[in-house]
């Protein structure tokens, strides 16, 4: 275990390569999200997911080319950014792009918790499942990013989910279906194109990973679905790939 952890420590070269990419991507997409919210009056349900989709997709690309040490660098810069925007608070363009109004008066809490959930799941996935952690990045980044906007726009069959601090939060069956379809596609792309699994294995495993993602996302408490979707999709993929 100690050897695995030491291998995750970023080298100087990895820090030099990943840091400027991380800073540019995080600041650019965060500014865009805030601009769309404050200037174009687009709902945070959409602007937050633009940020969400880009961050997870970038983490996946960095993980593909630089390994988990590169993702750690990226995540560290994201953590610094989160701390800064929380300090800046209400009205700041970076903060407003990702802080939901429906989470008021605990908007900062529901920025910190998803970030910590993401970080913990990413660490566990890489330790336990190796390259299959890429499934977790894309499933959480794409599936969840599509599910909320679809639910807001088309959700007709809504239900309340558990949440802390008396914040009222709903999900919908339509949003869960979007999570399933998008997560299945994301899983298939990783399994077939990156991990070079056979077509039949990739398709079957991806469908199970996508279904697992949709189920755990459907019932996860508000704020922790970044952990549950990442971890359980990877677990499902790992169990199938290693036993088929």
Short note summarizing the structure:
This protein is mostly helical.
User: Using DSSP, what is the number of strands?
Assistant: 2
Which blocks of ≥5 consecutive residues have pLDDT under 50? Answer: none
Radius of gyration: 17 Å
Helix content: over 70%
Count of distinct structural domains: 1
Shape: globular
Describe it:
The protein has one domain. 76% of the residues lie in helices and 2% in strands. It contains nine helices and two strands, in the order ααααααββααα. Helix 5 packs parallel to helix 9, helix 6 crosses helix 9 and helix 7 runs antiparallel to helix 8.
Considering the chains and any ligands shown, give keywords for the structure.
9 helices, 2 strands, 76% helix, globular, 244 residues, mainly alpha, two-stranded antiparallel ribbon
Any chance you could write out the topology, listing elements then pairs?
Elements: H1 2-7, H2 12-38, H3 44-88, H4 93-96, H5 109-129, H6 133-154, E1 158-160, E2 170-172, H7 173-194, H8 199-219, H9 225-241
Antiparallel strand pairs: 1-2
Helix pairs in contact: 2-3, 3-5, 3-6, 5-9, 6-7, 6-8, 6-9, 7-8, 8-9
């Amino acid at each position: 275990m100690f050897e695995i952890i030491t291998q995750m420590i970023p080298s100087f070269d990895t820090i030099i390569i990943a840091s400027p990419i991380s800073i540019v991507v995080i600041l650019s997409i965060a500014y865009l999200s805030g601009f769309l919210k404050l200037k174009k009056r687009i709902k945070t349900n959409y602007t937050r997911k633009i940020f969400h989709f880009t961050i997870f997709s970038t983490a996946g690309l960095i993980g593909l080319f630089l390994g988990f040490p590169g993702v750690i660098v990226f995540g560290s810069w994201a953590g610094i950014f989160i701390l800064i925007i929380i300090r800046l608070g209400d009205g700041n363009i970076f903060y407003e792009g990702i802080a939901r109004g429906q989470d008021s008066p605990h908007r900062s809490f529901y920025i910190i918790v998803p970030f910590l959930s993401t970080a913990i799941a990413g660490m566990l996935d890489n330790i336990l499942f190796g390259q299959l952690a890429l499934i977790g990045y894309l499933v959480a980044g794409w599936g969840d990013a599509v599910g909320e906007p679809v639910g807001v726009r088309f959700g007709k069959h809504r239900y309340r989910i558990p949440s802390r601090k008396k914040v009222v939060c709903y999900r919908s069956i339509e949003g869960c279906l979007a999570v399933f379809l998008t997560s299945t596609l994301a899983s298939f792309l990783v399994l077939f194109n990156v991990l070079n699994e056979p077509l039949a294995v990739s398709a079957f495993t991806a469908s199970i990973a996508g279904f697992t993602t949709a189920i755990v996302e459907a019932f996860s408490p508000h704020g922790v679905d970044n952990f549950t979707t990442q971890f359980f999709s990877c677990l499902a993929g790992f169990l199938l790939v290693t036993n088929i």
